[in-house]
């Protein structure tokens, strides 16, 4: 199965030349490290930057240059900085081609829960609600199961929802799945993972059509 970097590396294969991409906190922030060098991509963060680069090397961090998750980042040549009004105008105006988010749960019809666990303190929704309401292409990066081994790909989310029917594709440590009107369609397996293991780890409806290939270049 994949680790967090493996998930990010697989999602980076979904990024196309000329894309404007928003990266959520957690695993999605790692995607910028694995995008191909021969394509031009603009990474956007809702706290007001367009043109994010990879994470800085140790000792080269700039405490004033951070992403929405308050992690230090780098800025590529030509990057721009702006206020939240402009940043969310980009998001709400559908000027972002791909949104990559983490999630606590995803339902078989594409609902996402990624902002709150009842009874636990949270800092707030952040930009997640605007992103899921406006984005037309959302990929979720997540672990397939929780620490107790329980599925996070469910028939119905149990946590408060961030968005309804908005997720298009999911990349987990076990698989790549597409959300369809009949449930999760299994597209690829992580290296060394069997279809049977993925079925066992998925509570929601899972569609398996023929031979399922392993992920490549992860």
Automatic annotation (TrEMBL):
Gene3D superfamilies: Glutaconate Coenzyme A-transferase (3.40.1080.10). SMART domains: CoA_trans (SM00882). It comes from the Bacteria. Keywords: Transferase. InterPro entries: 3-oxoacid_CoA-transf_B (IPR012791), CoA_trans_fam_I (IPR004165), CoA_transf_AS (IPR004164), NagB/RpiA_transferase-like (IPR037171). The keyword Transmembrane helix does not apply. GO terms for molecular function: CoA-transferase activity. SUPFAM superfamilies: NagB/RpiA/CoA transferase-like (SSF100950). Signal peptide: none annotated. Belongs to the 3-oxoacid CoA-transferase subunit B family. This is 3-oxoacid CoA-transferase subunit B. It comes from Maribacter orientalis.
């Amino acid at each position: 199965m994949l680790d967090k970097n493996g998930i990010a590396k697989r999602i980076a294969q979904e990024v196309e030349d000329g894309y404007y991409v928003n990266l959520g906190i957690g695993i999605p922030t790692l995607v910028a490290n694995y995008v191909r060098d021969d394509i031009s991509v603009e990474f956007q963060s809702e706290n007001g930057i367009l043109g994010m680069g990879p994470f800085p090397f140790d000792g080269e961090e700039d405490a004033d240059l951070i992403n929405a998750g308050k992690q230090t980042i780098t800025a590529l040549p030509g990057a721009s900085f702006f206020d939240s009004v402009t940043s969310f105008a980009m998001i709400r105006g559908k000027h972002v081609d791909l949104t990559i988010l983490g999630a606590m749960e995803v339902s078989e019809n594409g609902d996402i829960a990624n902002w709150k666990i009842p009874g636990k303190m949270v800092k707030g929704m952040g930009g997640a609600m605007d992103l899921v309401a406006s984005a037309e292409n959302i990929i979720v990066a997540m672990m397939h199961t929780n620490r107790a081994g329980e599925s996070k790909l469910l028939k119905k989310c149990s946590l408060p929802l961030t968005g309804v029917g908005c997720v298009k594709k999911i990349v987990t440590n076990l698989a790549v799945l597409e959300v369809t009107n009949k449930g999760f369609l299994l597209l690829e397996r992580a290296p060394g993972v069997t279809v049977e293991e993925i079925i066992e780890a998925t509570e929601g409806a899972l569609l398996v059509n023929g031979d399922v290939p392993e992920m490549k270049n992860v």
